[in-house]
Fold DUF368 domain-containing protein.
Amino acid sequence: MSQLSSTERTRPGVGEILLNVIRGGLIALAELVPGISGGTVALVVGVYERALDAGNDLITLARSVVTDRGNVRKNARAVDWGLILPIGIGMLVTVFALAGVMKSFVENQPQISRALFLGMVAASIVVPLQMVDRVDLRNRRVTAGALFAVAAVCTFFLTGFTAAENTSPALPVIFIAAAFAVCALVLPGVSGSFLLLALGLYGFVLGAVHDRNLTVIAVFVAGAGTGIILFIRLLGYLMHHHRTLTLVTMAGLMLGSLRALWPWQTEDAELLAPSGHVVLSVLFTVLGIGAVAATLWAESMTRRRERQIRAIRNLN
C-alpha cells in the first residue's frame, strides 16, 4: 500500500471519524480476548496497512522531537491523525469500559466465548490471503508454503502452554510482558491477551485496568510503547518489501492460533473431545463466522463505492 503524503490525504468527514472510533473499539475488544488478535481485526475492518504506516510516521515524529526538531512540523503533517486519534480514542474507551466485563465473560463462559472467537478467527484467515499478489505467490509458492506451514505449526504448539495465575507480579515482569503482548496489536494471528494468559498475568492486568491501578497501567503502557517501537519498524519493512511472504505467514499464524480457541479444553490447554453444550457452541462458532463475513462484505461494498466515486471524479 502506498503511503499518502499530507498534501494528498483528504480530511476525514464526521462519518469516517466515527467509523474509525468504532474500528478502534473492535480492535481493543479483540485485544481483551485471549486467542483473538487485534491485528486480525484491523485486517478485517480494512485499516491494517494504513495504521501500520501511521504508526511508523508517529515513531518518526517522536524521534524528530528529540533528534531533529527542524523537521517536527513536517513529520507531524505526515501522520494520519484522522485515523490514529479516533482509533486511539475508541480503544481507550473500550478497554476501560469493558475490561471487567470481558474478563468475566472469558473466565465464566470459557466454552461459549472460545466458540465465538474460533468462528471469528477462522473466517478471518481469508483476509491476508486476499491481499496477496497472485502472480508473486505463484513465483514464490515453495517458500510461501513452507512459511505458512511453519507459522501454523509453531503457533499451534506455542498456544498449548499456559501458566498459573500470578497475583502479584513484579513491575519489570509486567513491563517485559507488555512489550511482547503488544506485538499482537500489529501482528495478525497472535493474541496479546493469550500471551498474558500464558504468562499468568491476564487476570491481574485486566483487574488493574478495571480497578484503575495507575502504577500497573503506567508500567504496562511503557512496556507496550517500547514493544511497538522495536517491532513496528520491522513489520512495516516486511510488509513493504516482502509483502506476499509476510501476508502468507500471517495467515499461517492465524490458522495455528485456532488451537487456543478450541471450545473444549482443560485449564492447562489440553484439547478434549466435544461435550456439554455442543449445539450451543457450534451456533456461537457459526455466529462468529457470520459476524466476520458480514464485516468483510460491508468492507468490500465500501471499497467498491470508493472506486466508483474515484472513477466518476476522474471522468469529470
